[in-house]
Design brief:
Number of strands: 13
CATH superfamily of the largest domain: Glycogen Phosphorylase B
Structural class: alpha/beta
Shape: globular
Strand order of the largest sheet: 3-2-1-4-5-6-7
Helix content: 40-55%
Number of helices: 17
CATH architecture of the largest domain: 3-Layer(aba) Sandwich
CATH class of the largest domain: Alpha Beta
Strand content: 15-25%
Length: about 400
């Protein structure tokens, strides 16, 4: 197949959720002999330097950085035309012209199917499209995310107000673009259920979970920033991402003081991403560590006594939970962070519904590490058996093939 892929990120390095998912999909499609033309927008200028790493995976590569001014004018435009800020934020005249030209090239004329990664790329997938089928890779339901955020106490007012605006438009947009597409793909059954409840055609919704990449990390050295002795509680992810930042701050303000009273020698590490000053200021180099970006997060997980996923706002599959369990590391998570897990696999993660229970479960896991590890082993067996990138790639390939056949 000849596949046009449109995405609002540069999917390298494959560390956080969206990049990880798309990178593995691109890798699988390349191995299967399919030809991919990749068009990327990015809000992160520093990611442009990584684009060269994607060239072995695609035939054509287009990249563009959306500046803060682009974002400002796009958001104003979205307000004027009644469009979600999520979708309007990634409008690009340059991309429109590039696609208009592309569809006239020999490569563009041979395209069999379009894969639009994330809802914000749906408009570009259909504009100037000469009738090629579109598979919309939503990943998460943004309606579910905005619905949680708009009423979340303690979150920044600007984020809550933006979520209130977006919620109503996203409910309409996710349904409309699913109707226009051959198929919409989400990462978990709860996301699919949200779309169905919104009114999206059930027959046009497919669930493709992420896989878990098992690395040979058995001899990984203890992270230098970790203390030589004492239990470590670790939270991994892109700490510049709003939901992770909110979760880390909630943990530090509401949960951490209770844990320290019970297990004073414990160290908390927030690992990964681009943390803002509001989180970085908690770093003291002793019992609270905020690392920023790290080349590999596995060593930080392997040498932690416990992983936490204190997400108050969550949609889709939480890779941080799946990765920790795949390594046999105990996890304490909020219901939202564990909601993607099938009921029979949730014994692997310890779920806590409020700050008092979260602190109690963390303390219990630290005081009884053997019991916590035993629960994690149950989750490990389930994750390694049921979440494989090769299977996820095959599922996406099947949908793309069906879309191609249906259009002939």
């Amino acid at each position: 197949m000849n596949i046009l892929v449109l995405t609002p990120i540069i999917p390298f390095p494959p560390h956080d959720g969206d990049k990880l998912r798309l990178y593995h999909f691109l890798t699988y499609l390349k191995k299967r002999g399919h030809r991919v033309d990749l068009f990327c927008l990015t809000r992160v200028e520093g990611d442009l330097k990584y684009a060269e790493n994607l060239k072995p995976l695609c035939r054509t590569l287009y990249t563009e950085h959306l500046t803060n001014w682009d974002l400002f004018f796009n958001l104003i435009g979205g307000l004027l035309i009644g469009q979600s800020l999520n979708v309007s934020s990634h409008f690009s005249p340059n991309l429109r012209e590039a696609l208009k030209t592309y569809w006239q090239t020999p490569e563009g004329q041979k395209i069999d199917v379009v894969l639009a990664h994330r809802l914000r790329m749906a408009p570009a997938a259909f504009e100037y499209n000469p009738g090629k089928p579109v598979v919309l890779e939503l990943t998460d339901s943004l309606t579910a995310y905005a619905g949680q955020l708009k009423g979340q106490s303690g979150s920044r007012l600007s984020r809550r107000m933006a979520a209130r605006w977006d919620y109503w438009f996203l409910k309409r947009e996710e349904v409309e673009w699913t109707e226009h597409s051959f198929q919409s793909v989400v990462i978990s059954e709860p996301d699919a259920q949200v779309l169905r409840e919104e009114g999206a055609p059930a027959g046009k919704i497919s669930v493709i979970p992420n896989g878990v990449e098992v690395k040979k990390v058995g001899k990984a050295k203890r992270a230098a920033i970790y203390p030589a002795k004492g239990p470590v509680v670790c939270f991994v992810g892109n700490m510049g991402y709003a939901a992770n930042e909110d979760g880390a701050l909630w943990f530090l303000k509401k949960v951490w003081p209770q844990v320290k009273r019970e297990v004073p020698q414990t160290v908390f590490a927030a690992v990964g991403g681009q943390p803002r000053e509001v989180l970085r200021k908690y770093h003291n180099g002793q019992d609270v560590l905020v690392t920023g970006w790290v080349p590999e997060i596995e060593p930080y997980l392997l040498h932690a006594d416990l992983s936490v996923a204190p997400l108050r706002v969550a949609a889709g599959m939480q890779n941080k939970v799946a990765l920790a369990l795949s390594l046999g590391v105990p996890v304490v998570a909020t219901p939202g962070a564990a909601g993607w897990m099938p009921p029979k696999s949730r014994d692997g993660a310890i779920v806590a519904v409020n700050e008092e229970m979260f602190a109690q479960e963390v303390v219990e896991a630290l005081r009884k590490p053997k019991a916590a590890r035993a629960a994690a082993k149950k989750g490990q067996r389930f994750i390694l058996k049921n979440y494989k990138w090769a299977e996820s790639g095959r599922m996406l390939e099947d949908i793309l093939k069906k879309a191609t056949k249906a259009s002939r």
